[in-house]
Design goal:
about 190 residues, mainly alpha, 9 helices
């Protein structure tokens, strides 16, 4: 299959089944990276960090990144089109159906189920990001020691940011993103973390 068509179809699949927004795309993207070899789990983690700290929806930012890294500008365009096409089709179809059946208890049940599916996908995404951030599989494979594979400084930073978010809820999210970026740079240069 030609690369551009494969990019479009894979992101069409992601856009079609990742109900719940950008974080719900992560399990699909993880599987895509493992299947195609277009990016590693560590690169996926970096993509999430960059996509969360730049303007625009997470899924679109990640589609743009993967498409561009894989096939340049045409790849970026087709990956984004693949990501958004299912939403456009579904919105048009659902809007017509909902107007006819908006009071149906079955429609209400379907939305209830979609909310649960969305929560499950987002929870899985959170666990995947936590695992990528806090546990180095490469170190574990080399040493067999889970303690050495645990990223202590990443855990400390996550706790500090969590406490900061709870203590200063009105502080703009950019402040936390900037603090996290600065801390990551500092960890890298000061302690090799």
């Amino acid at each position: 299959m030609p690369l551009l068509l494969e990019l479009f179809l894979r992101f069409f699949y992601v856009g079609l089944f990742s109900v719940g927004g950008g974080l719900a795309t992560l399990p699909f993207l993880k599987e895509m990276g493992e299947t195609t070899g277009w990016f590693t789990a560590a690169q996926l983690s970096d993509m999430v960090a960059v996509s969360e700290s730049t303007p625009g929806p997470l899924g679109i930012n990640m589609a743009t990144y993967v498409g561009f890294q894989t096939a340049g500008v045409p790849g970026a365009i087709l990956a984004v089109l693949g990501e958004v096409a299912p939403a456009l089709v579904v919105i048009v179809a659902v809007s017509h159906v909902l107007m006819k059946f908006r009071d149906s208890k079955y429609v209400a049940y379907a939305f209830y189920g979609l909310r649960a599916a969305s929560a499950g996908l987002i929870a899985m995404s959170c666990l995947s990001v936590a695992q990528l951030t806090l546990f180095n599989k490469g170190v574990f494979a080399e040493t067999g020691n889970p303690v050495m594979a645990f990223n202590f400084w990443g855990f400390v930073l996550a706790v500090v940011l969590f406490v900061g978010l709870r203590k200063f809820p009105k502080l703009h999210p950019i402040a936390f993103v900037a603090f996290g970026a600065a801390a990551g740079i500092g960890f890298h240069y000061l302690i090799g973390g």
